[in-house]
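Predict the holo structure. Ligand: adenosine-5'-triphosphate.
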Amino acid sequence: MTEQTSNTQHSTTGAHESLLRLEGVSLHYGSLKAVDDVTFEVEKGARHALIGPNGAGKSTLFSVIGGAQKATAGRIFFNGEDITETGESARARGGLVRTFQHSSLFLGMTVLDNVALAVEGVHGTPWRFFPNPISDRKIRARTMEKLEQVGLAGRAHELCGNLSHGERRQLEVGLVLACDPTMVLFDEPAAGMSAAETHRFMNLIESLPSEVTVLIVEHDLDLVFRLAQSVSVLAAGRLIAHGTPEEVRANEDVKVAYLGESEGAEPLFYSADAGAGVEKSGVNDAS
Ligand SMILES: Nc1ncnc2c1ncn2[C@@H]1O[C@H](COP(=O)(O)OP(=O)(O)OP(=O)(O)O)[C@@H](O)[C@H]1O
């Protein structure tokens, strides 16, 4: 992927091709095992969720995958290449892109200009003395395409600072799409969203091109079980389950891990055939 990437190659086997593979990944803070010997893979084109009770290690593992934090043990492979030692921005250039946070939006600029700058960073002249991204027709067309994809074309000329919380999150996805990602890492996208915003955002993630692989860390289990085709469950830093949403719902270790978090909490999971499939206990309900 980059000059920092080692030559180690990971061969994939089986019918489905692995895009991201973690092998024995750990991140220990002294004696605290925030992430402990985690092995799993995400297939190309998958909608994969990483869930777990509070303090399970989700954010830490997410940072390790994105490259913001270094694993203390284990290897990470992306597209067959060992990226364990590859930095965050080099991973992003290689297609493994994390959603931008609100802080990366320019609130005093229009929605159009925000995405145009990101598009220009990827497709345009890397740096100009007097940047005027909208003057470039190709960049403008590409920018509008990204805004259409995230449902913000009608807000193109609005100042970013005037957008609602949900719209800003849509815009963050637009910035990510501007990077032409192979895989997008979504970090709790539904946090702080209203039910309507969450619904819109779910539709947006579902409408992403099928060649874009998605890994999502999310507390809102309604969203997870609607969106994900495969789920990995962490508890106390360890991977305790990995499989389809149905398999994970039925897993006894998963039920115990969630219920153990809050005594007297309502059961977190209905059986798979009980309508919506998931009952929120409030334990991990960020909505
Ligand atoms: N920088 C740090 N130094 C020491 N311990 C940390 C650090 N960051 C996280 N931890 C600890 O690592 C463990 C995993 O934390 P992490 O935030 O990854 O869990 P999480 O599953 O994302 O939790 P939540 O759902 O509450 O956000 C926790 O015990 C946390 O206190």
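Confidence is low (pLDDT under 50) at residues 1-14, 270-287. The longest helix spans residues 111-123.
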